[in-house]
Every structure is written in C-alpha cells, then in structure tokens.
Write a structure and sequence with these properties.
alpha/beta; Purple Acid Phosphatase, chain A, domain 2; 2 domains; eight-stranded mixed beta sheet; six-stranded mixed beta sheet; about 25% strand
Length: about 400
C-alpha cells in the first residue's frame, strides 16, 4: 500500500541578534518548543524561506530597507530541527553581496540543507527542487518580486524574479514531469492581511498553468486561503521565526505552518498557527483561525461578485495604505524639505499623510499616479532616477 508524503512549509525564518546564541548552540527546544520540534521530526520533508543572509565576512550593499544577516554558525538550530530545504528567492538574500551569498550557500550545503531560488547569474538560477519520496514526485518552485538589489544579470548574482510569461511557461512544463507542483511566492504588501489584486491575479495565472499549491510569503502577516481551479492558494503565510522588529504587532504575532499530505489520490492541507515568543516561536495551543476564516469568506464573496465584499476588501486595503505606506511615499516625493520635516514632527502616520498630500495639487497627484501605473512612464522615470542616483555618488 502506497504511503502518503507529509511536507511542512514554514514561513519567513531567520536568526536575529537576540537569539543568535540559541541558534548557534542548536537549542531547538528554547527556540521552537516541543510541539513544533515534534512536527518537524515526524514530517517526511520540510522547507522554509530563509529571510536574510548567513555570512561572516560579507559587506552590506547600499539599499533602502534593512540589511539582514546572521553568522553562519546560527544554521545549527535549523539543521537540528530537521529542515531539509530553504528558498533563497527573497528580498534579503543578496543583502551582503556576492560574498555573503556564496557563504550562505556553502553553509547550507555543509549542513545538508538544499537551497534554491538564486544563482551566480540570470542564466544559472536554480529555480526549483524535486522531492521524490514514497513513490511521489513533488516539485517545489520558488520566485520573488525583484528589487534593484536582488535582480540578477549576465554576470551578477540574483534571485529568480517573477516574469509572468516565463514563470507560467516553466510551470506548465514542470507539471508534465511531476505528481504535484508547489510554488513559493515571495511578494505582496507587507504587514497586511490581504494580498494585493495584482498578486491574486498572478496566483490564478500560475494555478491555470499547473501549480497545485501556491504559498505567499514575505508579507509577515497571516492572510486567507482560496480554492481555485483545483489548486490551494495561501494568501499570506506570515512569519515562522523572524523576530526582526522588537515591536510585536497584530500582523507579526502569528504565522501559519502549512502541513501538506500528498497521496496518489490528491493532497490535503492542515494549518498550524505558530505564535511569536520573546526568543523564537511556539505552537499556539488555541489554534484560533476565526480571523483567517472571516477573511477567507470575505474574499470568496468578492470573487462571487458581491459588491459589498469588494468595497469592504478595498476599504481595509486603503486604510492600510494610508496608515503605513502613503506617508513614506509622499515624503519621498517631497524631496529635501526642512519645512515639511519640521511640520510633521510628532504627528501620527495618518496625520502625516494628510499634511503631505495637502501640499500637492490634484493634477500633480494625477501625474505621479500616471508615472507609477503606466509602463512607458514607469520605465522612463526609473531611468531618470537611476541617472540621478549615479550623480549622487
């Protein structure tokens, strides 16, 4: 009788200074608790997104946002946990350049952990791995949204970036040679329970081209699930063990560890809620998926054409944009402006957004929107900004 294959998919994972010692000593009990350790030891295979760069000598590249690294010895805990593979297709894997990237891959290889999602050049990226267990052939494919600091070139290290035509063509071909095809997608809006419309459309297209399971990582927030065209879509897995920010928000307090059982007659999914602890994470004994289920129902209604559901979905997404990203975006567009900097001191994020947007005329905002949304103007603007950055060196 053929046995089923159980694979664990963990979200964003990486050591931080506060738990470096525990990771280096391999203290999985203190980091993850007994229940999570048992889940990993009983699984046939496990994979996570390694959200940073394991390096001892790499130098940080110049970029916007945090540069995330940890000593290579901190891999000891993940090895002892039983992790079998790690996706490197993310926004931090190239934070410490080619040196850091090489050191991380070497460390993973020494510890028997298979990596995928990056390469020495655009032509040498390892985009997927194949898991063959108990008569099942399962392909894990990984892809990320690209930024200037993780974009590969002919002679430049980088990650596997989402190009819709190329990715869908690759998935269609891969599906012909496996029983199941899983996509780990790194992208979407951070710190929100709802995936963007663009990402949701991408998931549908990948499912139409053969993906059986698609998991959205990078958002650092638990989202919702969807069944589409025979595929299972997890819109927002949240963190597994990634306590980068000392502040715990409603988004970073929990994550979903996804357990998938693959068999000859299909696959089943089981979700495990993981909650953040001071030094790591642990199995959440309450397993309260009420918020998750509510968001899933709202999205199902949206897909069914419910106008009220669509309005509520958009309202929550707009509220997030206004409170988190709009103030930062508008401040960047304002440039060096001491008067504005002084005026927004002590204001909340929403107050900051209201003040800064009041400084733009309607037609100016329309012009900014056009340049961000239109492909032609977008490329022109990027070229101009690239030249301007070179002029600042």
């Amino acid at each position: 009788m053929e046995e089923n294959v159980r694979i664990l998919f963990a979200g964003d994972t990486f050591p931080v200074p506060k738990n470096f010692d525990l990771f280096a000593s391999g203290d999985t009990g203190a980091l993850f608790g007994d229940k999570l350790c048992e889940l990993f030891s009983s699984a046939d295979y496990s994979v996570c997104n390694l959200e940073g760069c394991l390096t001892d000598t790499g130098v940080a590249v110049e970029k916007i946002g945090p540069s995330v690294k940890a000593p290579t010895e901190t891999l000891n805990a993940l090895t002892r946990l039983g992790l079998r593979a790690a996706t490197l297709a993310n926004t931090h894997t190239l934070d410490f350049g080619e040196t850091g990237h090489n050191e991380m891959r070497d460390a993973l290889s020494r510890n028997g952990i298979e990596y995928f999602g990056t390469g020495d050049s655009i032509d040498e990226i390892k985009k997927y791995i194949t898991v063959e267990l108990k008569g099942q052939r399962i392909i894990l494919y990984t892809v990320t949204e690209l930024f200037p600091f993780n974009t590969p070139g002919k002679n430049r290290h980088g990650a596997n970036g989402y190009d819709e035509y190329a990715v869908c063509r690759e998935l269609s071909e891969l599906k012909k040679s496996c029983d199941y095809l899983v996509v780990l997608y790194h992208g979407g809006a951070e710190m929100i329970h709802y995936n963007t419309r663009m990402v949701r459309q991408r998931f549908h297209r990948m499912a139409d081209n053969g993906a059986d399971i698609i998991i959205s990582q990078h958002t650092h927030a638990v989202g919702f699930e969807e069944r589409y065209n025979g595929a299972y879509l997890l819109h927002g897995q949240g963190n597994f063990c990634f306590n980068l920010s000392p502040r715990v928000s409603e988004f970073t307090a929990e994550g979903v560890l996804l357990e998938v059982e693959f068999g000859s007659g299909g696959f089943t999914v089981k979700k495990h809620l993981v909650k953040r602890t001071e030094l790591g994470c642990e199995y959440d004994p309450e397993q309260d998926f009420s918020g998750f289920d509510e968001r899933t129902r709202l999205h199902d209604r949206l897909l069914g054409g419910d106008a009220e559901a669509e309005a509520e979905f958009d309202r929550q997404f707009s509220a997030y944009c206004k409170s988190v990203w709009l103030p930062r975006l508008i401040r960047v567009f304002r440039g060096i402006n001491p008067e504005d900097d002084k005026a927004i001191e002590g204001l909340s994020m929403e107050q900051t957004a209201e003040y800064l947007t009041s400084k733009f005329a309607k037609r100016q905002l329309m012009a900014i929107r056009m340049m961000l949304a239109n492909d032609e103007f977008n490329e022109i603007a990027i070229r101009f900004i690239d030249d301007a950055i070179k002029g600042k060196d």
